[in-house]
Design a protein that fits this description.
5 strands, 199 residues, mainly alpha, three-stranded antiparallel β-sheet
C-alpha cells in the first residue's frame, strides 16, 4: 500500500480515537475493554487491513503477552489528559475474561523491579478498564468521519471489529498467537494460552 493512501495518512492518536469510537457497523462505539484487547486489535488492524499510521507508527514488538507497543500507553494518557477519551472500571465482561486464564496475570507480566517503580513502563496486562471517547472526543472524530478521505480507514476498522469484536480475550490471544507466532517469542503466557485451546 502506498504511503499516501488514506489508510496510512492518519496519525496514531486519531487512528486510536477512531478505533475506540467506531463500531463494527460504523456507528458510534461504546469503547474497548482492556489494554490487552486494544493492543491486539491495533496489531490486527495493521497486519490484516494494512493500516499503519503516518509518521512514527505503533511499532509492535514481541513482549510478555504477544505483540506490544509502548506508544499506545503514551497516546492513551495524552488523549485522556486532553479530555478526548476516558476510562472506567469495566463491568463483569472483562473480569470474566481475565478469569479464563489459570494463573495470576499481573504477577506473571509485571517484572519485580517495575512493581516498586510506578514511573516504569506499564506492563501489557489484563487491566480492567474500558476506554471510550468523551463527548468532546466524539465531536472530534465526527469531524474526521465527515471527511470522505477516511472512509476506507473506517471500513477497515469496522471489518476488524466485526471479525474480532465478539471474541473473548482468550480467543483473541489464541488467534494472534497461532497466526503470528513470530510475535510470541517473548511471551510468558504462550503455553497457557495455547494449552487451553488444545483441551
Amino acid at each position: 500500500m502506498h504511503s499516501d493512501s488514506p489508510k496510512n495518512s492518519i496519525g496514531r492518536r486519531d487512528l486510536l480515537m477512531i478505533l475506540l469510537g467506531v463500531s463494527a457497523q460504523g456507528s458510534v462505539s461504546e469503547g474497548i475493554g482492556g489494554i490487552t484487547r486494544l493492543q491486539k486489535l491495533l496489531f490486527l488492524l495493521e497486519q490484516e487491513e494494512h493500516v499503519t499510521p503516518a509518521g512514527e507508527g505503533f511499532t509492535f514488538e514481541p513482549y510478555k503477552a504477544g505483540p506490544y507497543s509502548s506508544k499506545l500507553y503514551d497516546d492513551l494518557e495524552f488523549l485522556e489528559n486532553l479530555g478526548l477519551i476516558g476510562k472506567q472500571v469495566a463491568a463483569e465482561g472483562t473480569e470474566e475474561e481475565a478469569s479464563e486464564i489459570d494463573f495470576t496475570f499481573e504477577d506473571l507480566i509485571e517484572p519485580e523491579h517495575e512493581k516498586d517503580d510506578p514511573s516504569g513502563p506499564a506492563p501489557d496486562a489484563y487491566e480492567e478498564h474500558r476506554f471510550y471517547l468523551t463527548p468532546t472526543g466524539v465531536q472530534k472524530i465526527q469531524k474526521l468521519l465527515a471527511d470522505d478521505t477516511y472512509k476506507p480507514l473506517v471500513a477497515s476498522i469496522s471489518r476488524i471489529k466485526s471479525r474480532y469484536g465478539q471474541y473473548s480475550l482468550n480467543d483473541l490471544l489464541y488467534h494472534v498467537y497461532t497466526k503470528y507466532p513470530d510475535m510470541t517469542t517473548e511471551s510468558e503466557i504462550k503455553e497457557q494460552v495455547l494449552r487451553r485451546r488444545r483441551s
